[in-house]
Amino acid sequence: MTPPSSGVPEVVTSSTPLLAALSAYDVARLPRKESPHTTDARRRDVAALLPRLQRTDGAELLVADLTVRALRTAFADFSLDHARSSIARCWSTWNGFCSFLLAEDALAGNPMGGVQRPRPERHGPKPLRGERTAELLLTSVATRRPGARDPWPERDLAVVATLLVSGIRSAELLGLRVGDLAGAAGDHRLHVLGKGNAERSVPVEATLAEVLGNYLASRRARFARPATLPLDAPMFVDTRGRALTRDQLQYLVRQAYRTAGVHDRVARGALVHALRHTFATEVVAAGASAVEVMRLLGHQSLTTSQQYIDVAAQELRSAAAANRAYAALRDVRERADA
Fold first, then answer.
1. What domain of life does the native source organism fall in (predicted)?
2. Distance (Å, rounded) from C-alpha 164 to C-alpha 90?
3. pTM (global) more than 0.70
């Protein structure tokens, strides 16, 4: 969705090149003040579908080419190698764009109405499974392994620990700056920019503050940087000193699971998010209310936070039901009925 050299068109019509119309849509959305994560996700959805909309004659795509048939075919192809959630998000992106074109009178109707959208998945919490899994993971990540290519255990431990004990999202972690760790000793906090540019402050205990401090010290030594890093520098970087990317984060976490031997304890589709879910289930087990979970995780809906409370209640009920006294009681009742 890079704006074309011709600039943004003043008027969008059915004969406007599609890329120019997309640039106009970008401009129209500026007042929304979207977070970088939202903007990047929208641009990925556009980039993923554009090749599937190319005309057979090789001519430039126009707004008029956004027909029900063309979009239906493109989404059918897109759905072959994408998850339901990805298809639904991409559908929403293109539906928003087509609604914009409809408002501009560039389309007579919204063609996305003729494109099937997946039913919403019922997402429940997917924390790491098994006892001592988090402990095994952290211990493994902190261990310097001889023979590893360019190892940086201080950085890896800081990444995994931050996700595990703060509950922030992967995009929020990638957006952190050095100056976002603030506060005096004993009152450290992470200033996080969440969904919809909503800001929140996440408490950081002394242990995590120490881990982050050790990582930043190792970073200065690794790259021969001055004693103080710029406050606007990315908090987490790769082995070349560049801001850590989404793909690099996923690879780092996936390898951490495998090295620790706990990859089979990660629910399918969770990966990085499993650490956030583990944090949430742990704070609920410690007695946190749905409102407290909502504030800590940056949820926009109390209903989302309530899911963790409900799951915890179900687990407690299952644990209680496993009491061997229940089995003995059933035996007594069966003999009495006989």
1. Bacteria
2. 29
3. no
Note if 25 is an active site residue.
no
Span 256-315, pLDDT tens digits: 999 999 999 998 878 998 898 888 878 777 777 766 767 777 766 555 556 655 555 554
φ, ψ dihedrals at 254, nearest 5°: -60, -45
Q: Verify whether residue 225 is a known catalytic residue.
A: no
- Active site annotation includes 195: yes
Q: Where are the domains of the chain?
A: 18-114, 133-321
299 classed as catalytic: yes
Q: Tell me, yes or no, if 295 is annotated catalytic.
A: no
Domain boundaries 133-321, corresponding CATH code:
1.10.443.10
Verify whether residue 69 is a known catalytic residue. Answer: no
Out of 155, 219, 273, 277, which one is annotated catalytic? 273
Which listed residue (155, 219, 265, 299) is catalytic? 299
Residue 33, helix vs strand vs coil:
coil
Q: Class of 18-114 per CATH? A: mainly alpha
